[in-house]
Amino acid sequence: MSLKERVQRCLGDDVIAITEYRGDLGIEVPKGNIVSVLTRLKEDETLGFDFLTDLFGVDNLDYYAKKKKKPKKKAAGEEELVEEEEDKGPPPPRFEVVYLLQALKTNERLQVKIRVPEDDMEVDTITTIWKAADWPEREAFDMFGFKFRGHHNLRRLLMWDEFEDHPLRKDYPLEGKGEERHLSYD
Amino acid sequence: MGFQAYQGEGWLLTKAEQLINWGRSRSPWPFPYGTACCGIELMAALASSYDMARFGAERVGFSPRQCDVLIEAGTITKKMVPVLKTIYAQMAEPKWVIAVGACACTGGVFRTYSTQQGIGSIIPVDVFVPGCPPRPEGILYALLKLLDKIQEDHPLYKKRQEVAEALEAGK
Ligand code: SF4
Known about the structure:
The complex is a heterodimer of chains A (186) and B (171).
Chain A: H1 3-11, E1 17-21, E2 24-28, H2 34-43, E3 51-59, H3 63-68, E4 69-73, E5 79-83, E6 95-103, E7 108-116, E8 122-124, H4 134-144, E9 147-149
Parallel strand pairs in A: 2-7, 8-9
Antiparallel strand pairs in A: 1-2, 3-6, 4-5, 6-7
Chain B: E1 4-5, E2 12-13, H1 16-25, E3 30-34, H2 38-46, E4 69-73, H3 81-90, E5 96-100, H4 101-106, E6 127-129, H5 136-151, H6 157-170
Helix pairs in contact in B: 1-5, 2-5
């Protein structure tokens, strides 16, 4: 059985979307079920995804908006901005959290993705499944502002503690907002 | 130099200021503060083929309290700024600073939210070395420039001024 079929059989309805790109399989799952999905992927005998390679956030601000308007070549040669044929409803939520898994026995890889809307940044922590998720989750919190529910030590990892923004968000200016770190002895 | 040394029993004639400067400029103990790629060039400058020890920078100290020259080689992030300030404050007078590389001078290619745009705004810098990274020769040249600067220093001037002010106040 191919990996795709095994994943589909293991997760059933929890697979919202499935993508395959150059031999890499990626699935999208509901945000609320992430812990149960990853536990099942880890414990399923035919899959055995027992290794968390990485965990990171993605900000899609502007991405879908830009994708919608594509320059279309006309027969006459002039370019024009044309809306895509049908409007596929509202754009997907702004943020994503991506989990990269690997099965050490079979050396197969899987990309699991959840979508996180801007007004509900709470995501369940997966440090209960993999301890290795500790620092990646702190980094994702630092850079994007995901609140990992149940994380035992959700502090900033890269920026200093008093820093207020989340710098990898697309609407944060590259040169910063003039934050400085000041020394405090306490 | 102003030294007049004679044979026999021997005596020399000099000024205290020059004697102090002579001593200081021949033993500038460096504190290597390598934070990024420039640190590698600093290591090369300290190692045997370039051998910074030729100019008296013999003993590389890893305690700021026993060093004279802070050689800051590499990017300073804003998170690191208090650390750099503390280390500079821990060094005993007299102390000098060499900023090695574009990052230490101006922030270099990293014009971002996390990078300090040059350490000149945090601590006083004596010699800036441009380059990304500068060659070890550049670092040696900066040290020589610094030694020239030390030779022209007036280590007693502050004291003299204080004495003059005290005399002025006593009148
Ligand atoms: S100046 Fe260039 S070589 Fe030196 S630390 Fe910065 S990026 Fe690295």
